[in-house]
Amino acid sequence: MRIGINLLLWTGHVTRDLRPVLEEIAATGFDGVEVPIFDATDPAHYRDLGRLLDDLGLARTVSSAFTGAAGNPVSPDEPEQAAARTFLGDVVNCTAELGADMVVGPMFQQLGQFTGVGPTESELERCAAFLSDMVPQLDGRGVTLALEPLNRFEAYLLNTAEQGQALCSRVGHSRVGVLYDTFHANIEEKDPVTALGDLHASGRLVHVHISENDRGTPGKGHAKIRETIHLLDALDYDGWLTIEAFGKAVPELAAATCVWRDFFADPLEVVHEGHAYIRDRLETA
């Protein structure tokens, strides 16, 4: 397993100015980072950023979401669907230019948008058709899409690993899989560890976020992180364990994730203590 950390802890748009933080991440022993891409209009920027990460010996994945004018895959409005196809296509292109092979996140609906009811059959069919339409580009650029079920307060289409697995079955292609996040599972799954085991058995698990119940430093809350890591080790999972923690450094992200107080004294606490916690759990698994 490889250990990563999502750079949304510092910024929503990574530039070379973040090099001191990236150097500290590399020196701590992380295998890689998760790069947020919300502005996918400049592939050359991500090509250059990829060179920096290569210099530091950091592998990478990408996180993204449909926000603002990025479109909506489940909308009955064709222009909104077209905007979603364009946005995700641009993200996939930038991901490949970055030298990454995976885009993770809730790439199935507009983030934080609700209808007042649960997902309808027509919405699920539209989403599956949207994802199927994206498969040729994903395949062509060598990129896998990891759909991240979110808790009910952030999304309504996919909240559980089982729902994510079912949507992937509708698509029926290995380029579209499911991300398991310990924070969201802590809210939505009746038994988070059993849900993870079932997801792995389905063959749809492609990525894991290690996120504490308060989205602070892993190991300082009550999310089943230890049990998650031990199970993944027993199952010979060989993908990423990527820390996802949020602070108040990015105001718009803090608002979107409802972060109203500090969960750690400094983001580097998450870097050092989070990595040590995961490494210790792997060594004792």
From TrEMBL:
Stretches assigned to coiled coil: none
Pfam family, one: AP_endonuc_2
Keywords of the record: Isomerase
InterPro entries, per database record: IolE/XylAMocC-like, Xyl_isomerase-like_sf, Xyl_isomerase-like_TIM-brl
Domain of life assignment: Bacteria
Keyword Isomerase applies: yes
Single GO MF descriptor: isomerase activity
Domain (Xylose isomerase-like TIM barrel): residue spans on this chain: 22-249
Protein name in UniProt: Sugar phosphate isomerase/epimerase family protein
Provenance organism: Aurantiacibacter gilvus
